[in-house]
Amino acid sequence: FTGPVVNDERALTSEADLRTVYRPAGQPALDKQIDHLDDHCVAFLAHAPLAMLATADANGRCDVSPKGGPPGFARALGPSLLAFGDLAGNNRLDSFTNLTDNPGVGLLFLIPGIDETLRVNGTGRVTTDADVLTACAIDGVSFRTALVVDVEEAYIHCAKAFRRAGAWTPEAWPDTSDLPTPACMLRDHIGLDLSAEEVGEVLEDGYRRTLWRSGG
User: Does residue 111 register a pLDDT over 80?
Assistant: First the structure.
């Protein structure tokens, strides 16, 4: 497919440039940011089964990875500390490798059915500390590692994006009948000599076997 040619001379490359287009943030949007996890944040974490983890390597190359578990999988260990155990993934370790070079992290916690989200920013590290692993325990899972985040900023993010998307409204969900299945996409990206159905079976088997396995 083809698209427009982007004129880099029109790029906005400083905050001053951006403010020629965007009005100043309202004071409530600035005041809502706190530097710790208060009781409201702790309650939100206790109900959240899903988070998006953003990291960057030493060169600023970014990565976002979903993290999930039963509601409350991410635990507040104190007013400025949260952690969650690592469940099995693909072992690329993109996020965790980034943290060894650049500890900055951004987390977006989501509760299905609630359009507002909880944003938490700070610094992170991967640990094998036994006390942390015990504090992060999920029934039946013994973790080998956990992500610990020192919280520097926390605030509730507005609902506009989720309401525009109709994210939790089934009748607003797009028709995906013309969308290639994830198995088909994976087959073509890797170049596998298998049918999409066979790839799908392999994926589902892997999910069944490792869904609640500790990462490692």
Answer: yes
